[in-house]
Amino acid sequence: MDYDFLGNTGVKVSNLCLGTMTFGQAKVGLPGQCDDELSHEILNRYMEWGGNFIDTADVYSQGLSETIIGKWLKSQERNKIILATKVFAPLAGSDMNSRGLSRRHITASIEKSLERLQTNYIDLYQIHCWDNGSPIRETLLTLNDLVRCGKVRYTGASNVCGWQLQKIVDLTEQLGISPMSTLQQQYSLASRYDEFEAFCVCKLNGIAVLPWSPLKGGVLSGKYKRNQKPEEVSGRIGWVAQQENTRGNQACPAWTKLEGNESMWNTLDKLEEISKAKGKSVAQVAIRWLIQRDVVGSVIIGARNLKQLDDNMGASSGWNLSAEEVRSLYLLTLRLLFDGV
């Protein structure tokens, strides 16, 4: 694998980060969730590839993702792993104050995450989204306290817009506290909105972008075809397509938003053309495009099995997209900014 610095830190991480939202089977009916055994197999294979960066969140599978990682982490050399998690959302059965980015919730949440992960520190602690109910000054001072006492090494944000990230940058400078090092954001050939503002803030301040959903919930994997409604077993998009009362979301688009979107199908045609020329999979080309963006520090990939993981990991090193291939995909997907998915 190839490695790069994590934003404005001196820490190097693999350019593919293992996302673990699929770990744990708490969401009844949602396909593709991994039990403990399969999750540990995926973690082991990721490490065999040379990966060292693992991302989770307290809310993933209602804490089960962190718990599964914690069981596995006991058998690993902790200092070789860069471990990231997040705070914001409530877990099932929690009270009205067990959510958000207040000092009260953050300090309680970090203790529970450390317990589930069976470690005494988090390498990267991220706010999962913006909280209008808590002063951002209180949130940032609380995160800085966690850094000062050694429970957190670095901090980051996720799912915030440009002005929110700029406010975070300005406040950390004014207060003289530890700056945020990363921005975890939805980013792919099918979702490029943050290039307008948020990523400009990142470039000016040494903040690394960590794209989530690099394949847009499987849209950019190449397995979906024009005018062919997917079967339920084909993946989450297929599962959503077959459910009468289930709506899609940003990480798992509805088939109704895809089937008539010619800009998306044209993008997939180009990806397939490049993939054949390169001898790579469509998914690898889509992920490689992200890796070669100068603002990206590491791309967060998810896997439901070892085959998916192995294919995604093949995007990490040993080859590049040409300048013309990068440019052609860049121009082609500009249309998607207007058409949406």
From TrEMBL:
Keyword Repressor: no
The NADP-dependent oxidoreductase domain, residue ranges: 16-328
SUPFAM superfamilies assigned: NAD(P)-linked oxidoreductase
This protein's UniProt keywords: Oxidoreductase
Source superkingdom: Eukaryota
MF terms in GO: oxidoreductase activity
GO cellular component, one term: cytosol
Family to which this protein belongs: Belongs to the aldo/keto reductase family. Aldo/keto reductase 2 subfamily.
Full protein name: NADP-dependent oxidoreductase domain-containing protein
Organism for this UniProt entry: Lottia gigantea (Giant owl limpet)
